[in-house]
């Protein structure tokens, strides 16, 4: 009886603490509430045409679609949910050729969208598509290159390439597969990959190189880690062997990001370069990392909630009258050249920016 009462008290205290932490991330004025912002961007996405990577659905569109779905579910907007589901339906038939091939991290992450739609609709067609994308990341093709075989022999995905982008691209589809199936192999795959990338790319200051041979802290590149780690930590069983290592990497990164946050609340295109321009997609991803950490109790609310709110308020000012996020760095491959990152063009409405804004909107609506 005593142990039962003690457990109940601990649970009650935990709920009170989490409620207080969520309250720290509320109280936004009109025009800045997550519901308003999410609605603007999600309905704008519905009206957009597909964006292509070669001739296939672009991964940035998938990220935005995922964000719009998360927002719609949290906002309990059934009309929006239906519109987002209907947007996918042609991909089962006359738009089927737009489905990405299963031969690259950027393509395979499409499976995450199918899994999210399955969770909402329970339509087995989505689950079948999602599993094909998730499983093919670990199924070595016959024409695999030597380096791809090497990664597979070590138990990693043959699509491993040690670009920081991968720690959203790989972990999102494997994590969603775990949520849908309950099969531990999927979460084990995601965690194993994450530890590899932490060991190879995270530097002493908590930030990440774009790749081992590119020693620059590119905003959106680091953003993929800032989103991938907390999302994975939320799914990892508490007793998972890799959880402490991933939590260590996450906390180290968040501490560093807090130090590099600009006075205006944002972060720069190269995080540690004060004379570089403010970039919105990376800033939104870092804000998301703060939000989740505060909500889960991993980050001290008194320190990180004000930083998250400051960033959120700054972010919204970069949305134009057409509901396009501005100052978004276009898709950027790795290059060992500082000027390369400085000179990247900036787009308004680029899905790379629309997506993390929606992720933040959905996260701030969590109860």
TrEMBL record:
<dbReference type="Pfam" id="PF07470">
    <property type="entry name" value="Glyco_hydro_88"/>
</dbReference>
<feature type="binding site">
    <location>
        <position position="165"/>
    </location>
    <ligand>
        <name>substrate</name>
    </ligand>
</feature>
<dbReference type="InterPro" id="IPR010905">
    <property type="entry name" value="Glyco_hydro_88"/>
</dbReference>
<dbReference type="InterPro" id="IPR012341">
    <property type="entry name" value="6hp_glycosidase-like_sf"/>
</dbReference>
<dbReference type="InterPro" id="IPR008928">
    <property type="entry name" value="6-hairpin_glycosidase_sf"/>
</dbReference>
<keyword id="KW-0732">Signal</keyword>
<dbReference type="GO" id="GO:0016787">
    <property type="term" value="F:hydrolase activity"/>
</dbReference>
<keyword id="KW-0378">Hydrolase</keyword>
<dbReference type="InterPro" id="IPR052043">
    <property type="entry name" value="PolySaccharide_Degr_Enz"/>
</dbReference>
<dbReference type="GO" id="GO:0005975">
    <property type="term" value="P:carbohydrate metabolic process"/>
</dbReference>
<protein>
    <submittedName>
        <fullName>Glycoside hydrolase family 88 protein</fullName>
    </submittedName>
</protein>
<feature type="signal peptide">
    <location>
        <begin position="1"/>
        <end position="20"/>
    </location>
</feature>
């Amino acid at each position: 009886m005593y142990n039962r009462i003690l457990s109940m008290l601990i649970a009650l205290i935990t709920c009170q603490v989490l409620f207080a932490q969520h309250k720290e991330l509320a109280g936004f004025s009109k025009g800045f509430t997550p519901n308003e912002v999410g609605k603007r961007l999600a309905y704008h996405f519905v009206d957009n045409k597909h964006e292509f990577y070669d001739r296939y659905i672009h991964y940035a569109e998938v990220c935005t679609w995922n964000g719009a779905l998360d927002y719609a579910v949290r906002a309990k907007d059934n009309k929006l949910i239906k519109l987002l589901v209907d947007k996918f339906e042609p991909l089962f038939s006359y738009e089927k050729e737009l489905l990405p091939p299963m031969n690259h991290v950027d393509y395979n992450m499409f499976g995450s969208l199918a899994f999210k739609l399955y969770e909402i609709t329970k339509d087995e067609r989505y689950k079948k598509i999602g599993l094909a994308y998730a499983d093919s990341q670990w199924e070595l093709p016959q024409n695999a290159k030597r380096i791809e075989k090497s990664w597979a022999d070590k138990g990693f995905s043959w699509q491993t390439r040690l670009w920081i982008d991968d720690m959203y691209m790989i972990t999102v589809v494997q994590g969603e597969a775990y949520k849908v199936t309950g099969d531990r192999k999927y979460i084990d795959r995601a965690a194993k990959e994450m530890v590899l990338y932490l060991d190879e790319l995270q530097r002493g200051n908590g930030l990440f190189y774009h790749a081992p041979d590119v020693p620059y802290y590119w905003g959106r590149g680091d953003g993929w880690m800032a989103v991938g780690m907390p999302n994975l930590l939320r799914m990892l069983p508490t007793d998972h062997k890799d959880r402490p290592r991933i939590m260590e990497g996450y906390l180290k990164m968040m501490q560093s990001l807090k130090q590099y946050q600009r006075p205006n609340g944002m972060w720069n295109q190269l995080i540690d370069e004060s004379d570089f321009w403010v970039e919105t997609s990376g800033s939104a991803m870092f804000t998301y990392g703060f939000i989740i950490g505060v909500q889960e109790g991993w980050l001290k609310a008194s320190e990180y909630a004000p930083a998250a709110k400051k960033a959120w308020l700054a972010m919204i000012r970069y949305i134009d009258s057409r509901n396009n996020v501005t100052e978004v760095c276009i898709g950027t491959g790795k290059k060992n050249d500082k000027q390369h990152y400085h000179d990247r063009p900036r787009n308004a409405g680029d899905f790379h920016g629309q997506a993390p804004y929606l992720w933040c909107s959905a996260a701030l609506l969590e109860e």
